[in-house]
Amino acid sequence: MEIIELTAVQLAQKIRSRELSSKEVVNYYAERIRSLDGEINAFITQSFDIALKQAEEVDKKIAKSEEVAPYAGVPIGIKDLIVTKGLRTTCASKILENFIPPYDGTVARKVKENGLPIMGKLNMDEFAMGSSNENSYFGPVKNPWDLQRVPGGSSGGSAAAVAAGEVPWALGSDTGGSIRQPASFCGIVGLKPTYGLVSRYGLVAFASSLDQIGPMTRNVEDAAALLEIIAGHDPFDATSLDVDLPKFTEEIKKDVKDLKIAVIKELSGEGIDEGILNCFNNTLKKLEDAGVIIEEISLPSTSYALSAYYLIAPAEASSNLARYDGVRYGYRIENAENMLELYMKSRSEGFGDEVKRRIMLGTYALSAGYYEAFYGKALKARRLIRQEYERAFETYDLLVSPTTPTVAFKLGEKVSDPLKMYLSDVCTVSANLAGLPSASVPCGLSEGFPVGFQIIGPALSDHLVLRLSKAVEDATQFELKPLKELKK
Questions:
Q1: Neighbouring residues of 390: CB distance < 8 A, sequence distance ≥ 6
Q2: Which domain holds residue 375?
């Protein structure tokens, strides 16, 4: 088998057994990135020299029969809003174009400690605000299935890099669907863990009560393996959960027979394209054949989810992004006559249109006289959504729906209509509002493009979400075509 055909877990086994060296693998992927990324634009910053040094360290330890981490030597890409010491972190924004962090975020530190060579930082929507990866200061990312289409957002660079075989796996972040939606559009596996399961320390904040880092991989086993690396309690993150973690790679091997799941009625009917629903329903039949018990449930409060999200997330963003003032770090205009001019011009020139739109929306929602009418009501809707999910999980193990209402749309198709763009997240935002684990697994093709099957579980049921994800994967036998079609 060629390197491109091996999953991350298979690569790790071959590196440990010395059938391959980590250096060989890094060089292979570096060459693939050089040949493909000019068109795809998945990387903002490439760090092949750093990756090679990390690979050589792993190879030396293996040569001396020293103990290495289970997945040591397998290269990875990191979304460009996770800070990496000495490696540029831009959040795809002009305002942080030349920012070099002085420390590693917790997940970046864990990646390094586990011996995963970092190939570079991956493109995204600016400050994670977008559903198409067209809002990047460094240009849009292209979908490897069709370079005229979007890869989804905001983790579009991570999804495209994995789908094109530029890296075996990657880290993304999910605030309202930013892992799952691009995973669906690009035909890969994306997991948003339970809120607090993975540390947010060193994740540049968009909406702190919603953000969560997670794996983006070619298959479910790799997602489980990467989650084992990055999950766990972190004293540097006040929202980090201190809980015992299962062995996720073992959990996915367990049977799904008699697992009781429910289809969310409000997310699986009106507004979802017919081709998406056909793939989704065909997958449900295959799961029934595997012994899964399937029923339907109504969660009426999910109809408020999108509205609540687009008040809560911008409100938190307007607060989090206040630190970019042109004073301490980041882009700063020259020759400002006073402090007010420095603030205004640095921010107006440094931020893109979508970021400005959300800052203004959030500031308005938090302003005196409107706080209770907008932000306060959104918080009440969020509580209703969470309570509805909790009641549903008294009866069902997991809930399911399509991941997105459509397949990947064309570049430029929705840029001028923000509301139409925001509807891309209609199936995914409620899991973030409730802090629940959720995955997207490819389940087929519609119009020749990938369709995602979304699985949502109760808090800390990430192992169950992954187990059903593996059953979907086994039932559908989805083929990630760009791996072969983009071979050079």
A1: 458
A2: 303-380
> Do 422 and 364 sit in the same domain of this protein?
no
Question: In this structure, are strands 438-446 and 189-192 parallel, antiparallel, or unpaired?
Answer: antiparallel
Which amino acid would we find at residue 22?
S
Tokens of 309: 């999200």
Q: Which residues are catalytic?
A: 79, 154, 178
Domain count, the chain: 2
Rounded Cα–Cα distance for residues 169 and 299 (Å): 34
Give domain status of residue 156, yes or no: yes
Q: pLDDT tens digit string along 289-330?
A: 999 999 999 999 999 999 999 999 999 999 999 999 999 889
Q: What is the pLDDT of residues 246-288, one digit of tens each?
A: 999 999 999 999 999 999 999 998 899 999 999 999 999 999 9
Domain assignment present for 390: no
Can you give the pTM of this predicted structure?
Answer: 0.97
Cβ neighbors of 180 (< 8 A, separation 6 or more) are 174, 190, 192, 403, 428, 438, 439, 440, 452, 454
Whether 273 maps to a domain, the answer reads no
List phi, psi (to 5°) of 3: -55, -40
Angle between helices 305-320 and 377-392 (to 10 degrees): 120
